[in-house]
Specification:
This protein has two helices and four strands. With 74 residues, the chain is an alpha+beta fold. It has a single domain (2-70), classed as 2-Layer Sandwich (Alpha-Beta Plaits), CATH 3.30.70.
Length: 74
């Protein structure tokens, strides 16, 4: 079984604090409009811990993490 992490931002909740970019700039980038862009929607597993810290750091709870388990070939 393969596990992947999908990252997104709930723009209805996000107020542009920028904590996600401060904690994990490899995945998040603050755009000119003050909102974050997700640079790596399915980051490599070496970034998972940093992405989880970014989720925890977001005061708006706008960083959304979705864990996906997929069956490999039989």
């Amino acid at each position: 079984m393969t596990r992947r992490l999908r990252v997104s931002v709930d723009y209805e909740r996000c107020t542009g604090v920028g904590a996600c970019e401060q904690v994990c700039p490899e995945v998040f980038f603050m755009r000119d409009d003050g909102l974050p862009e997700v640079l790596e929607p399915e980051p490599h597993e070496t970034l998972w811990a940093a992405v989880e810290r970014a989720e925890d750091a977001c005061p708006d709870e706008a960083v959304i993490l979705e864990w996906v388990d997929e069956e490999g070939p039989a």
